[in-house]
């Protein structure tokens, strides 16, 4: 078995970032390339990391935004681990974490060009509730492009966490 196959076969674990641990900046900036934006929300966020084979392969950050409403503000999986269920595991873990903390609604925003991300979030139960036109052109200094598509608009999604939903 190759080293890569052995790592893929290792179980995935997700845990909170320890207080003495450096945030996974490479992953955080993979999901949100504006370091200033990440630095602004990170102190208020709860960061969780996914580990496989002793390595951090993904992360997510949750933020309480309003009473009973939380936002999933950052989700990233290292490129070599994408397409292997890590992103789905992170999103489902974030949903369970927010629900356990008493959130009734979990929101997120993602770029219009992130086709894979939009599909993932909808497969996990999120619904599109709005579009913030030109969000990325207004708030990010450098143009962003994904899948050959300029990333201009933020697609807002929401998930109802109330019991029985």
In short:
The protein is α+β, with helices and mostly antiparallel strands and 165 residues long. Helix content is 30%, strand content 35%.
Structure explained in plain terms:
The protein has 6 helices and 9 strands. Strands 1-2-3-4-5-9-6 form a 7-stranded mixed sheet, sandwiched between helices. It is globular. With 165 residues, the chain is α+β, with helices and mostly antiparallel strands. The model has no long low-confidence stretch (mean pLDDT 93). The chain has one domain (3-160): 3-Layer(aba) Sandwich (Aminopeptidase), CATH 3.40.630.30. The protein has helices spanning 3-9, 25-31, 35-41, 86-100, 115-123, 135-139; strands spanning 12-16, 46-52, 55-66, 69-77, 105-111, 127-132, 145-146, 149-150, 154-160.
Helix-strand layout with pairing:
Elements: H1 3-9, E1 12-16, H2 25-31, H3 35-41, E2 46-52, E3 55-66, E4 69-77, H4 86-100, E5 105-111, H5 115-123, E6 127-132, H6 135-139, E7 145-146, E8 149-150, E9 154-160
Parallel strand pairs: 4-5
Antiparallel strand pairs: 1-2, 2-3, 3-4, 5-9, 6-9, 7-8
Major sheet summary line: 7 strands, mixed
- Class based on secondary structure composition and strand pairing: alpha+beta
CATH third-level topology: Aminopeptidase
CATH class: Alpha Beta
| Total domains | 1
The whole-angstrom Rg is: 16 Å
- Taking all residues together, what is the mean pLDDT? 93
- Uncertain segments: none
CATH homology superfamily = Gcn5-related N-acetyltransferase (GNAT)
- The number of helical runs is 6
Shape: globular
How much helix, percentage-wise, in residues? 25-40%
How many β-strand runs? 9
Amino- and carboxy-terminal Cα gap: 43 Å
Question: Which band does the percent of strand residues land in?
Answer: 25-35%
The second-level CATH architecture is 3-Layer(aba) Sandwich
In N-to-C order, the SSE pattern is HEHHEEEHEHEHEEE
Instruction: Order the strands across the largest sheet as they lie in space.
Output: 1-2-3-4-5-9-6
